[in-house]
Amino acid sequence: MTQSLLRRAGKAVALNAMGNWFGMISGMVSLVVIARLLSPTDFGVFGMVLVAFAIPEMFVSGSLNDSLIQRRDLQPGHVNSVFMQSLILAGIFWLGISLASPLIAGGFGHPELEPMMRFFSITLFMGAFASIPAALLQRDLRFREITIVDILGTLVAAIVGVVCAIYLRSAWALIFMEMSRRTVRLVAFTAITKWRPSVKTSWVETLELTRYNSLNMATRVIQSVESAFTRSAVGAVQGPAALGMFNMATRLLEQAKAAVVQPFAAVALPVASQTQHDLPMLYRAIEGAMKLAALIAYPTFIGAFVIVPVAIPVVFGEQWTPAVPTIQIFFLMGLRTPTSAFNTGVLNGVGRVDWTFKISFISLVLTGALVAATLQISLEAVALAVLAQILITWVIGAYAVKQSIGFPMHRQIVAGSTSLMASVVMAVVVWGVMRSLSDAIQAPIQLLILVGVGVVSYAAALASLAPAFAVRLWRASIMVAKGRRQEAIALVKGGA
Question: For the segment 431-449, what is each residue's pLDDT rounded down to a tens digit?
Fold first, then answer.
């Protein structure tokens, strides 16, 4: 049964990766077009809307549904209880935002935020309805359906966003873009699962989820407060243009993580919850996923760090050049994601939500202190503060996993070390080539040359440092081409 679960998890990883890569490419294309049509200030205004909704959305659709994935003996009453709680919270926050939107807009100094927030508040109810079928699909590792829906949502959102940006030339384009994506997810997930809202539940079934939900909700509150604090502070002290650049850096990092790490991390919670009584199998699943994620993540983040000075002006336009140092720092934050991305899923999967709460609280305290100390310096200083916080909390998270399931910290640290070393070699080579390129070569051509050099040098470094693994990787790529994805994943896991 456990082997069958891991095969399903491997298939889920492949499908999720496919969807995320498609989403990243489509999202990047639309983002490039929209970034050329809109200004950093427009992105900053949209970022203010997201700040205002960070905590409400966390309550409504970001914290309760995890219990549906983690609980082994899930009953219909549990599902209905979570739905009712989400719907009630949506109504409360919708009313609160409707009443407080003038004050929030005034606080940010942008009156145009008021109608945007009132319109965007509809998404709270959409989240309450969509989160239940989404959780049920993830619980059953039905990532084929999730992938299809995500691809469809990305395409619809990209079309809506570009068309609106052309005609509106304001932050409203980003509002409509995001709402269209959520609408597709709501309709599609509900249709696929055939889930229908119901109020049939009992107090006992609600209480059975209380401890897990309360700690998970408290954790999400802290995380949302942390994100909202940083963005609000940047917007208030350094202005909407700085916030727009901060949000752009955040979005680029999140899209990269979604493409190269999230396919593995997404299955951590359901796999950990179903293998928590078979620790050797859980260890193999975690370590194998970390190694595979590192194989792609390390060259992606390190390579992006090196070529960002050339890539950003070419892709997004010269108006985004001041954001280059901040974006580079954000890509450095991604270096720990091949291991840290699994920590929360594993801890929640084995029921240790108390640890995730402690880690989030420490993260909030660190962020508050470090960001407050750097706000008056520069945007780059704030980004470095966030990077320092991430490194510290990663160590704490690795220790928490060790304490919870006994998985050694050193195995988390060295997972994918060969990929890391090969990526560093690649970075040195790409940097050297970038320094030697003639200014007479057009920037787009320079970018293509650097990407090509990066791919070749990473493959060569990987083959030199781990020749046996390079052979396995080549054989795995042939298997993928033949449609034998699960066999390819198993082959690479053996020596990543």
Answer: 998 888 877 788 888 888 8
**What type of residue is 416?**
G
Structural Rg of the chain based on CA atoms: 22
- CA 298, 299, 300, 302: dihedral to nearest 10 degrees? 80
Measure the CA–CA gap between 150 and 134, rounded to whole angstroms.
Answer: 11
Under 8 Å between Cβ of 223 and 66: no
- Helix ranges (H only) for 334-408 are 337-349, 353-374, 379-405
Q: Which is nearest to 301 in space by CA: 342, 247, 252, 263?
A: 252
The region that residue 109 occupies, defined by phi over 0 for left and psi between -120 and 50 for alpha, beta otherwise, is left
List the domain boundaries for the chain: 2-415
Predicted TM-score (pTM) of the model is: 0.67
For residue 352, which phi and psi values (nearest 5 degrees)? -95, 55
pLDDT of 270-313, one tens digit each?
777 777 677 777 777 777 777 777 888 889 999 999 988 888 88
8 Å CB contact between 45 and 160: no
Question: In the structure encoding, which two tokens stand for residue 186, read together?
Answer: 């709501």
**8 A C-beta contact, residue 186 and residue 126:** yes
What token pair was written down for 315? Answer: 């892709």
